[in-house]
Amino acid sequence: MFYRDERLALFIDGSNLYAAAKSLSFDIDYKLLRQEFMQRGKLLRAFYYTALLENEEYSPIRPLVDWLHYNGFTMVTKPAKEFTDSQGRRKIKGNMDIELTVDAMEMADHVDHIVLFSGDGDFRRLVEALQRKGCRVSVVSTIRSQPPMIADDLRRQADNFIELDELREVIGRPPRDDRAPQRQEAEV
Question: Domain 7-82+90-171, what architecture?
């Protein structure tokens, strides 16, 4: 599905990929993810898209964003919008679809193959447009979760569908054992 000499770009919809991996009960090791796709072709760019809460003193995603930025990923962020819905619940909105779409269309002239890490059906038209420009498009998401995390029309439009669960052994973080080993000290 990949050719060693083709130029690749990764487009990672951060919140969508996080939700898909969480639904499969594993964490992604982004260093391994980048290495995996560097082996599959000539990786030109790895974009990661996420919205950030700017007014929070500590954002749980900030350490990941900083690490990715210093380790070969092109970070695309914007402030998330916070609002209260009609039931009085605090909601956060931070859609990055337009940013990802514009960047993918700009990169299409410079790459042979785009790998989209998202199951969002809104990207079907993007995939179709990239294909018209001559790019092959692979989509990484999962159908093994309940409900599936990929829209059927996006899966059909893609040149390749890569099941995220099948990448678990390659890009998954080993499970952490949070239980500290019991210390056995000899009696003197």
Answer: 3-Layer(aba) Sandwich (3.40)
